[in-house]
Amino acid sequence: MAGLRRARGTFALWALLTLASVFFFCEYFIYYCVMLQCSWPQIGRLDGTLEAPTLRAFFLADTHLLGALRGHWFDRLRREWQMERAFQTALWLLKPHIVFILGDIFDEGTWSSEKDWEDDVRRFSKMFRRTTDTELIVLPGNHDVGFQNEADWAKLWRFEKVFNVTSATVVTKGGVNFLLLNSMAVLGGSCSVCRSVEDELFLLSRDLNCSLQATQSKKVGKLCRDARKFPSSPPIILQHYPLYRASNAICSGLDVAPEEVRHQRFEEQYDTLSQEASEKLLWWFRPRLVLSGHIHRSCAVLHENKYPEVSVSSFNWRNGNRPSFLLGSFSPDRLALSTCFLPEETTVVVLYCGSGAAVALLALLRSYLLKGTSLVHRPPV
Fold this sequence. Notes:
By secondary structure, the chain is an alpha/beta fold.
């Protein structure tokens, strides 16, 4: 009898350790296993040799942190843990110089009260904490401040105050110019701040183009005499909404939208910027790259056969089975991009279900065998 109790205790300990090991792997170690496959893309020179990048950047989009109004508490807890572990693992393994999040940080920023907003910001700051060696720049999305026709500009200013951004500005890092845009103010319609943002964009386009011309000619025209000086490099536009495209049918990439929805028509000023606003941005800035979010899937397109745009997938498992983020290596005249995928949620579910079923099956089998053994060895009456 004592031996049977010891055997049961040993099996229970083994089962507990097995399930604990599976839990540790699925909730912690799996992120290292998957992201060890990621590496910074290398920049190639025209002569075929490799150039060391001056800047390494992460690009995330659509984290959609649930607030107090929508979603189940366990769903919120689960998704935030996944994103925190993924982000912290990526920082530790890849050590970027800067991180950009391309809007829709929160899911309920349009409706949240001041108290709920402060709670959302606190949780965001905990999840996406980093050392002083890594800078974080956050852009607004429609879920943060509202669509253009419903935007509460007090909420926009609240967002800008917390994250220290404006609706149109140029940030220069390592000789690379990043043009940060508030998509809701440049959708192409009319709103209370759209005119001032457009005026600022016109001045920024003048300054950036004058900086390019200054390196090509010693003579500077009257228009450029008062222009701000930037490195002589075409800008990289960062925004939440994609530039105008009719649908996702023209997209290429590793995580494009499923075939059944790729041909659905997009609505201007809701799914993308308006065609007019998109053409104006390309004409004014002639960017060497545009990066956007909003559609929750990756998409690489080429506008006018010379302006590449990449839409970044959602970083939240609520929006897809296999989230990802973008790695960018930059120099003033070269760039390279690659996608880093996070663990598939179906893999985690299969591991949990498979290990739980295996332990339960072994427990039943062991109970049956022990029962048979006790019957064989039972003394005759």
